[in-house]
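Hey, I was hoping to borrow your eyes for a little while. I've been puzzling over a protein and I'd love to understand its fold better. The fold is given in discrete form, as structure tokens running alongside the sequence. I'd be grateful if you could look everything over and explain what you see. No rush at all, and the record is pasted right below.
>
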Amino acid sequence: MHPSSFTHKVGLGLRPPHYSFLEQRPSTEVAWFEAISENYMDSRGRPMEMLQLIRQDYPIALHGVSMNIGSPEGIRLDYLQKLRDLIDRVEPFIVSDHLCWTGTSDMNMHDLLPLPFTEDSVATLVNNIDFVQTFLRRPLILENVSTYISYRRNEMSEWDFVSEVSRRSGCGLLLDINNVYVNSYNHGFDPHYFLNHIPMDRVAQVHMAGPSDYGDFLFDTHSTDIPEPVWNLFKILAPQIRHLPILIERDEDIPDFHELEVEVMKAVYILESSHESERSIEPV
């Protein structure tokens, strides 16, 4: 199913605590589900059984956390083969990962590590993205990540870096509004300026989540309800993203399915209430 058919359709991250509820095949307000790719690669047990059951009733997106697209060593072929096998089984409408690096060829750090915003990084990413898209025989969508440090050797802003990678590689963007908010707080920039300076025509999917507030910085835990600043950015963006698949994420302190369904319905309401015509985002 193509994302353009998802007008006002909001999805939810598929998580094991909700398996028992979903295997009853209830009627829900959720239009689609996103599964973490690595949780189902090489799986033969309950996770894959549940994914295939849910796939019978809902479109599925696959979202990876270990592709290591920013690695100067290139992308592991064994990883890509497992991902392609999963794609063949599930037939997702989107395959995505993160604009970051996750370790070396023989060590996975199990974290989404920031890249320096340099021409060298852009060149590495463009080469890796071309290789992955050719191997998978489909477009790759990459997400902006939350960060807590910045590199002294940065040559450009995050929004220019994201834009240049997408322009030169042809990859789509997964716009995580929560991550924009987290980075704006941690690094002291205007989130509206970020959103005004990325190519919205390259955005293929949108994520929404809630961070943890540690006072001096925000930490991207996906463990809380979506905060009002993120909802406010979403409201401003709504006219421009109403045709895109929107996802509500929750990875820690996962509540009852119906509690997350309320956030899904709130997002749908905002999209349906937004103006039909696109409008630009004005800095505050």
In short: The CA atoms of residues 236 and 283 lie 11 Å apart.
